[in-house]
Amino acid sequence: MSSNVGQNYPYTSESEADRAARVATLLAEREGLAGVLATETTPLDGNERWWVWKCPTTGCPGHLHAAGYAAERHAVFVVCDGTCGKTFLR
User: Fold this and answer.
1) Residue 15, SS3 per DSSP
2) Which 3 state secondary structure label does DSSP give 41?
3) What pTM does this model have?
4) Nearest residue to 41 (alpha-carbon basis) of 78, 14, 10
5) Does the pLDDT value for residue 19 go beyond 70?
6) Under 8 Å between Cβ of 74 and 85
């Protein structure tokens, strides 16, 4: 399986409480992330569980956590908790 196809499959899932706590920690740790989420996302709905993906950035050991819905596209906006700190659309 090619790497770009493999990266589209979820790695695991997490509860809403775990997701919200992880995103809150990332917001506190990363300057500017709150502004990005405020301008580029809309709030998530009330799901009990959310998918988590492995970060596709070479050398980054992080995981991607749902942080909102993309405001202008049909996608979940995710943030990496690893060393790259990037955001992606899933």
Assistant:
1) strand
2) strand
3) 0.88
4) 78
5) yes
6) no
What is the mean predicted confidence (pLDDT) over 65-69? 97
| Contact of 61 with 35, CB cutoff 8 Å | no
Distance in angstroms (rounded) separating the CA atoms of residues 81 and 60:
9
Helical segments of the chain, H only: 3-6, 16-29, 33-40
Q: Which residues pair with 68 in a beta bridge?
A: 77
Cα–Cα distance between 2 and 10 in angstroms, integer? 15
Q: For helices 33-40 and 16-29, give the axis angle rounded to 10 degrees.
A: 120
Alpha carbon 67 to chain centroid, angstroms: 5
Cα maximum dimension of the chain: 37
